[in-house]
Every structure is written in structure tokens, then in C-alpha cells.
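Explain the record.
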Amino acid sequence: MKYCLFFGLLITFLSCTEKKNAIGDSLFPQMAAVDSIQVLFYDKEDEDRFFTYLVNSDPSKIKALINDLRYDTIAPVSCTRQGKIYCFIDGAIYNTVYFNLDCQVPHFRYIKNARLYHFPMSASNRQQLQTWKKEAIAP
């Protein structure tokens, strides 16, 4: 009887815990192999003609960024783009990720098969991008 109660509680607990679906992992399975990024910050939102940029190849910074792109998507957000991130693997662009830091829901987004996917941005990545924006230089 004790074992039945224990297993019943265990099953109930496991079914109530939130599981994250790795939607981003299935869309771009090689994102974990990204070895460098180039971040472009637009001077004016949604206008990519004038920008500043920063290049980074620090694996810990890239891993933290990519972690936000691994799991569930969020509902589409109507905010404009403030910049984009080119993700490189062995010197070739693998993916381009757009972002908005100041939206009521800071987020990343990218396109795959003509569909736009939105991902929530962690507070640490938002802060990291704001720091990089101050360090970015003009081309």
C-alpha cells in the first residue's frame, strides 16, 4: 500500500512539472556548433542601413545566447527589430537571429521555411546585448 501511494505521488509530481519542448533545437539542430557571432545594432529600429557591430567568439557568451533559442516559442510580438545576430559555424553563416531589447517582451526571432518564430529573451542575455551595444563600433 505504501508503495502504491509513493508511486502515485511520484507520477502526479512528474506529470505536473513543466517540460520544455526543444522547438529551437529541432528547427536549427546545429546551433550548438556556432563558434562565433556578429551582432549588429541598428541606429534606428527596423532600419538596417546604419548600424554598429561587435564580433564575439567567447563560447560561454555564445552558449548563453543560444540557450534562449532552444526551447518553446512565444506568441508573435509586434515590436520592430533593433538588430540582428549572424551565427557562424567554421566561418560560414548558419543562421540569422533578430532581436528587440526594449519591447514589453524582449525577444529573439528567426525565420525557417517562411515561418517566423519568436523566443523569449532571458534577463541575462538582454543585459549582455545592452553591454555589447555600448561596446559596438561603426563599420
In short: Confidence is low (pLDDT under 50) at residues 3-18.
